[in-house]
Amino acid sequence: xxxSVFIGIDVASQTxxxxxxxxxxxxxxxxxSAGIEQLAQQLKALEPALVVLEATGGYEFEAACAxxxxxxxxxxxxxxxxxxxxxxxxxxxxxxxxDARVLAAFARVLHQHPERERFVKxxxxxxxxxxxxxxxxxxxxxQMLTAERQRLRLSHAAARPSIERVIELxxxxxxDCDALVAEHVQQQHAELAAALSSVPGVGAATVAVLxxxxxxxxxxxxxxxxxxxxVAPLNRDSGQMRGRRCIWGGREQVRRxxxxxxxxxxxxxxLIKAFYERLLAAGKPKxxxxxxxxxxxxTMLNAIAKSKQMWxxxxxxx
Length: 318
What we know:
GO molecular function: DNA binding; transposase activity
Radius of gyration: 23 Å
Protein name: IS110 family transposase
InterPro entries: Transp_IS110-like_N, Transpos_IS110, Transposase_20
Shape: globular
Pfam families: DEDD_Tnp_IS110, Transposase_20
């Protein structure tokens, strides 16, 4: 039997540097429609077991989608994971060719990993791309509003009228963006969104982020979905030492959204509130208790996404 071929692609705004586990040298194509089409034909002839690209601010998206559409197995990985792998392999220098070869080696390891789905975010279809773009734009507008409101507090009187006009404009843009997100969710995910929104403490903004940033919701078990979001406690033990558990990694925006939802739920969701107060009574620090609430809330939402049934305290009280 011939050995499997693995492909690594280092992505830049203008070019794609390609490495194959079966070749010593790399090659380059343009990061445009013509170059990507050429690459798809080249890779189809090689029949790779897995093609790995590093997430590069969106520059990788067209190539990843085109290669997947050509029938190739494609993984888009977190740059931090790829860089950590490179350091572990002793590849401390950084060039496009070297990065591509490291990604090809990473593809081989990832292909053998029993839980490789945890490391790879599914490629979005056209509808999911639209929702992700709207959710991202909403987040950007909220950040700009926060910045302008801070400037208003600290500004000279002469600058305040200008800042106030910008704030009003951003408020209108936020309202328009919220309306577009709500329309999209209603058209594409009405049943699921209604079920998720039935959980006390979970609002429309939380639902939109979960639908956009965690399309795997409802397809994983509770441990898998907690690890994916980055709310699963990680051990820090060595020899006789038992370190403090902590959360790390995962999807940052999902984790941020869960934090706010858990904060609200700890006051208004009877199950989460009772769970939170029980942890505090047991001596847990507030931050630790709140992270546990995030994990419990996500477990509830994952179960609801699986069943498509409305929140029921009797079912989710465990």
